[in-house]
Design a protein that fits this description.
Distance between the termini: 99 Å
Largest sheet: none
């Protein structure tokens, strides 16, 4: 495979529906999408199209799903931000839980003392 075709193909997802590779590294025998995609890239490069124009043409035809990596802008920015945000939220929840476990159990000591006094009064009354 031509290295120039592979370079552009690595930016474009293989949309055959079976694999999760890019057009540049799809190794499926007889893959209908990657094969025709590589031919299209080679054809566009032969007429002088640069990488951005080729990728733009695929996006124009297939939409943003043609890209291996979504652009970090607009709503797609959430795909980049949410994993870190959820990790921070999870770490904060663990921190709060650990802090709660470290606190002394003052509230549970009060009812026990109350029932101890009540039990002692009942025992004194029986005697």
């Amino acid at each position: 495979m031509n290295p120039n075709v592979k370079r552009v193909g690595m930016k474009l997802a293989c949309l055959c529906g079976v694999c999760k590779n890019s057009i540049g590294d799809c190794v499926m025998m007889g893959c209908h999408y990657a094969g025709s995609g590589r031919q299209k890239i080679a054809q566009m490069q032969s007429i002088g199209a640069n990488d951005e124009n080729i990728v733009g043409k695929f996006i124009e035809e297939q939409g943003l799903k043609a890209l291996v990596v979504p652009p970090a802008s607009g709503f797609n920015l959430t795909a980049w931000v949410m994993p870190f945000l959820m990790m921070a939220l999870g770490l904060y929840a663990i921190y709060v839980y650990v802090q709660k476990l470290k606190r002394p159990l003052e509230a549970s000591a009060t009812p026990s003392a109350k029932y101890d006094d009540l039990a002692q009064k009942e025992l004194d009354r029986i005697d």
